[in-house]
Amino acid sequence: TATMEESFPRGGTRKTHKSEKALQKSVEQDNLFDLSTEEESTKRKKSQKGPAKTKKLKTEKRESSKSIREKFEILNILNIESLCEGMRILGCVKEVNELELVISLPNGLRGFVQVTEICDAYTKKLNEQVAQEEPVKDLVGLPELFSPGMLVRCVVSSVGITERGKKSVKLSLNPRNVNEVLSAEALKPGMLLTGTVSSLEDHGYVVDIGVSGARAFLPLQKAQEYIRQKNKGAKLKVGQYLHCIIEEVKGNGGVVGLSIGHSEVSAAIATEEQNWTLNNLLPGLVVKAQVQKVTPVGLTLNFLSFFTGLVDFMHLDPKKAGTYFSNQAVRACVLCVHPRTRAVRLSLRPVFLQPGRSLPRSCQHLGAVLDDVPVQSFISKAGATFRLKDGALAYARL
Description:
Elements: E1 12-13, H1 21-24, H2 51-75, E2 88-96, E3 100-105, E4 109-114, H3 120-132, H4 142-145, E5 151-161, E6 167-172, H5 175-178, E7 192-200, E8 204-208, E9 215-219, H6 220-230, E10 241-250, E11 255-259, H7 262-266, E12 286-295, E13 298-303, E14 307-312, E15 329-337, E16 344-347, E17 375-379, E18 383-387, E19 393-397
Parallel strand pairs: 4-6, 9-11
Antiparallel strand pairs: 1-14, 2-3, 2-5, 2-15, 3-4, 5-6, 7-8, 7-10, 8-9, 10-11, 12-13, 12-15, 13-14, 15-16, 17-18, 18-19
Keywords: Nucleus, Repeat
GO biological process, one term: rRNA processing
Domain S1 motif: 86-174, 190-261, 284-349
């Protein structure tokens, strides 16, 4: 079993520590990371007796609390307990049904997107069809808009409990929810956003990017390549999900010109000049990063100059696992950002480093019952890894 002595710092601006001894100590506690509690205030009450001792004890308590939270972040790799309302996370379409999408989330998690959580224009047409009790022109079903393997940016709408007592994760793809962290003034050329088609106009498509005060337009000539290669020559439909590059911004973000060309989208890199922050950082963005620290269960990365992120062992490049070193330059994809702790998780797997690309269905073992598979490691409160006979690494969560 792999040792879990090392720890990651939380996502956020880089901080230096006087000592890392606190991070190396083993901690045994049931509730290591209470996401509902805020960090203790630095404001201290004065004490008439032993003020110096009280100050020292409170400082040690704060440092110990911080150490525990950081240790929890990595020892308990992303699990359903980590998810919370408002969390933005990268997902992959697993199943497409008439009334919902089943979405695979990182580390074996799963969520559901209801048909009314695609975009406002699509929901409006659905309501029109219900009211008229007959088919509405230009309204197509989810199977015509989505296909298994598509990567999508999601926001967690709720984490509830099913009748069987299991947790159920509801997600939204609606750009109004996913991109509400962006303002029109924050939009910059070169940014990679996701949006959905709202309507077809004479010279192009109005695209819903969910940013208040911004009207996004996709000219016909910028959509032709996509229509030929990925849409079988058919016009884009209302509700169709797109990865878009901002080509131009006018009127302080009031009017935004888009492109969905494969070469521009797949090569998109988030840069410092685009002024991303931990408040508006979105899943699916590809960044240039530098390895800060190598641990037994993954890496910490520095990216966009000031931010720190976590890469767990399942999201290392399989061909490079075991060869990473401090200060190594890498490219990484943002998987999720926790809305309260600002912890950022990333992936170094090559399939995530080309935006707009669908994931291949490469697993040959789906549905197979495997006997005598050796356990490689066990991660407390998360799951276990196994090494299959063909050398592939498998993971089963608790």
